[in-house]
Structures are given as C-alpha cells and as structure tokens.
Design goal:
Helices cover about 65% and strands about 0% of the residues. By secondary structure, the protein is mainly α.
C-alpha cells in the first residue's frame, strides 16, 4: 500500500517543491512594500518566505528519487495540492500582521484571495498595514490567471510536461484548446496578455483619479475579477463616475476568454470577438441585465433619476455577474427581482478561459443547444441532431461532461445552502453565501452582503466557505476526483 501511495504522491510532491520555492521568492515582494511604508508587518512576510522555502527544500530532498512523467490524473492532485499549500503560507503574514486575527480567518482570507473570491472577514481595511492590503490584492492577481498556469510555463525547464496540470487548472468545458503547439507557450501567451491588461488598467485608474498605490491594488483585483479593496466602502470610497467606467470596461474585457484576446491580438483584428458566440452572449447578457435592473430601480422609485439608476445598475451588475464583487451600494436593499436576477446571472455569465468564476457561459450555451436538440429528437426520433457551435459539431463527451458538471454544481449549491441553514443562517444569507463562495463572487446576500462581510460567520461556517471557494476555483471535479477510490489505485 505504501509503495502505491508513494508512486502516486511523491512525484507530485517533487513538482510541488520548486513551485513552493518560487512562491517563497514572491513573498519577498510585499517585504519591499512594508519597508517603503514602514508599516511594521515585515516580520510576517520574512517568516512566511523562510517557511515556504524550507518546506520546498524538504519536499525536494525527500522526493528527489521519485521523478517520473506526469500522468493525466497527477494534474488533479497537483492542482489541488498547490491551491491548498499556497494559501497556507500566504496566510502567515496576514496572521502576524493583523492583531487579534484567528488562524481560521487568516487562512480564509488567503484562500479567498488566491481563488479570486475576495470575500473578506476583516473590518477596518483602511487602517490595515499597506503591505497586508497589497498582499491580499496581489494574491488575487496571482490567482486570476492561475498560479499553476505560470508553473506550467516553468515545468519544461524542470524536464516535466505540463499538459496535465494545465488541463486540471484551466476553466471551462473545452480544455483541450491551445493557442500554440506547446502547452508552455500557451501559458506564457496567456500571462503576457494578462500582464499587458494589468498595466493598461493601472494607467487608466491613475488617469481616472486614483492615487498610484490604490490604482495598483485595484488593478490586481479588477483584472483578476477578484474584488478585494483597501477600503471598507469599496468603490463608494471614491464616488467617481470615471473610475467606475474604467472598472466596468476592464470587467467586460477580463470576463472574456483570454484565449480569445490572444487570437484577436495575433490576427490584429476584432473579428474574433464578433464571431465568438460565447463572447457575444457574455456582453449581451451583461448589457441586458444592466438595462433590466436599471429599469426596475427606476420604476420602483428606488432611484428617481434615471441616469443615477443606470449608473448604479451598470457598476453593481457588471461587478456582480462577473464574479468580481466590488460595490458602490448595498444592493441587498434593492427590489428583490433585481437582486435575484443578478445572483442568477452570476452563476453562468463569464466566459470559459476568463478570470471569472461560476458555471461559465459556454456551458450554459451547450446546455441550451442540447435542450433544443432534445426537442428536435423528441419530435423526429430518427433525426440526427448534434450540438453545433460555430458551425462544428461538439463532441458527445463534451456535452455529457457539461451536463454532469451542471448536475454536480447545482447539487453542491443546494447541499451547501442547506448546511449553512442547519448551522444557523437564514435562507437568504445561506443561499447567497453558498453562491458567493462557489462562484468565487465574494459578497453574498443578507448578513454576508456588500454592506457587511463574512466576519459574522462562525469558524465552522468559514471553513465550509473556504472549501467551497477551492471547489469553485478548481471547478469541482478536480478536487472531488481525489475522494474516489479509483484515483488512488495504481
């Protein structure tokens, strides 16, 4: 049994070691921020970096004789392991830098940032050490494209193929698509687009009125569709239409597949966007939802000025359905039809291959097309009606995988909401919290809504939220696969 476990686990730990070594160096970046601002949080980052490096060195020493080519299943184990270990070390400076914080809250905050959920259980964000706020937001930026996608670009240098890892970590139902023949080049291409988008966003925020430090921090959590802020009031802190317009623009860009951005950039033409049904659906759903919510807010008298209703709806709808989680208002107080429409659309709006969470628009499109095909086959039993996308038939296995994922996703959502209710939350808060964590949205409804945060939850509820954020970020199957008996059989 030990030999079987070693064959499965040790080669993965061997790859984990250099990833931890690299992350220990990343932990030195906020050290510089702490030194510049002299905020007193330096010690926590130094300890975390040293612990991370020591752990990586120990794993390397223990497993150096267990190298082998990664198998497809190894990607699932490696993805889950990295996404658990990184928040462990990322939580150390948060625990050391914030007085009175518990281990549970520190780990929750680190997992929330790494998974780009950016739900927070902290209060007094404006008074936090600058390096801690930088670290929270920087974690979201790293998690946005995926720490493992970056690792995939490095793996060939270590003599290990990265295709299995890339497939396990990337989002969406059609994971086999590549931008380049080599998977490492694919990862590098995605990161290049991500970095260029980040630079553009930071400059736009600075131009719109943010100071330099805030523009950097909020760039991190905008392009990652995360939602952490250095202010308790989030974007209401500025109450600036230009800043809100910049945010909406980059939310729309980052809710679109980065592979599509790469294709458009290589072809030097925007036609790639106009020909992509998922992109068109994402933009259309976003614009349509904003229009409906603005209409509800104005007709209900919640806002008497139609332009104010449109402004409030545009920012909060775009932020919510993209799973970003910024807010300028407490939309909990809005009319129920507007609130629940936003929550429903949140579950599927963003594109596969984007930094957003949820089911993904492509899966919703496949589901709708499969339903249409089923209607045709019911009326004409002998007809052959494959699911078509952009003029090509989608493989049956992709359709089955999509339907299975949706069933698992809905089941998990209902079960988690029930558990939250069983532990004391009301229905609105329980369902809103479950959606917020599984979709990596951030703020929920009720007691965990945008005017409050997750500090109202017990430790047990926070641990459940943490697990749901991990499941949502790695798209359920990656994690659940590890709990099957067949996975551990050689």
């Amino acid at each position: 049994m030990f030999r079987s476990l070693r064959y499965t686990l040790f080669p993965v730990l061997n790859i984990t070691a250099p990833v931890l070594a690299v992350f220990s160096l990343v932990l030195l970046i906020p050290c510089l921020v702490s030194l510049i601002f002299e905020d007193g949080a330096l010690e926590g980052f130094v300890h975390a970096s040293a612990a991370c490096m020591a752990t990586g060195a120990l794993l390397w020493a223990i497993t150096r004789g267990d190298k082998r080519e990664l198998l497809p299943r190894d990607g699932f184990l490696l993805a889950t392991l990295i996404w658990v270990l990184i928040p462990v070390f990322a939580s150390i400076p948060i625990f050391h830098g914030i007085e009175g914080i518990s281990v549970t809250t520190a780990f929750f905050e680190a997992m929330s940032g790494t998974t780009t959920t950016c739900a927070t259980a902290l209060t007094g964000l404006d008074a936090l050490p600058e390096s801690i706020n930088f670290w929270r937001c920087f974690l979201s930026w790293l998690g946005g494209m995926g720490i493992l996608v970056l690792a995939v670009a490095i793996l060939p240098l270590l003599g290990v193929g990265g295709a299995q890892v890339f497939k396990a970590e990337t989002s969406g139902p059609m994971k086999e698509a590549r931008l380049t023949p080599r998977i490492a080049d694919t990862a590098k291409g995605l990161w290049a687009i991500y970095v260029l988008m980040s630079v553009a966003c930071a400059l736009a925020y600075r131009w719109a009125g943010m100071d330099t430090f805030d523009s950097i921090l909020h760039t991190f959590t905008t392009v990652s569709l995360g939602g952490f802020s250095s202010h308790d009031a989030s974007f209401a802190y500025w109450n600036n239409p230009m800043i809100e317009t910049v945010t909406i623009a980059f939310i729309l860009l980052c809710g679109t597949s980065f592979t599509l951005h790469f294709v458009a950039w290589k072809s030097r033409s925007p036609l790639a966007y106009l020909k992509n049904p998922e992109c068109l659906a994402w933009v259309g759903i976003c614009v349509g939802t904003i229009a409906v919510v603005a209409g509800i807010l104005y007709q209900s008298g919640f806002y008497t000025d139609p332009w104010e209703a449109l402004r409030k709806a545009a920012f909060n709808v775009a932020s919510t359905i993209s799973t970003t989680g910024f807010a300028t208002d407490d939309f909990n107080l809005w009319p129920a039809p507007a609130v629940w429409l936003m929550i429903i659309v949140t579950c599927f709006a963003t594109c596969g291959g984007s930094t957003g969470g949820g089911v993904k628009m492509l899966r919703a499109i496949i589901l709708i097309k499969q339903i249409a095909c089923q209607f045709k086959q019911t009326q004409h039993p002998k007809i052959v009606a494959p699911v078509m996308l952009q003029g090509s038939a989608i493989d049956t296995q992709v359709v089955v995988s999509t339907l299975s994922f949706l069933m698992l996703w809905v089941t998990l959502l209902i079960f988690s909401a029930w558990v939250f209710m069983a532990t004391g939350l009301d229905l609105k808060t329980a369902l809103g919290t479950a959606v917020a964590c599984i979709t990596n949205l951030g703020p929920g409804l009720g007691d965990t809504g945008p005017a409050s945060n997750f500090s109202v939850l017990s430790d047990a509820q926070l641990w459940l939220c943490t697990f749901l954020m991990l499941l949502g970020r790695l798209e359920l199957v990656t994690v659940f696969m590890l709990f099957t008996r067949s996975f551990w059989k050689t």
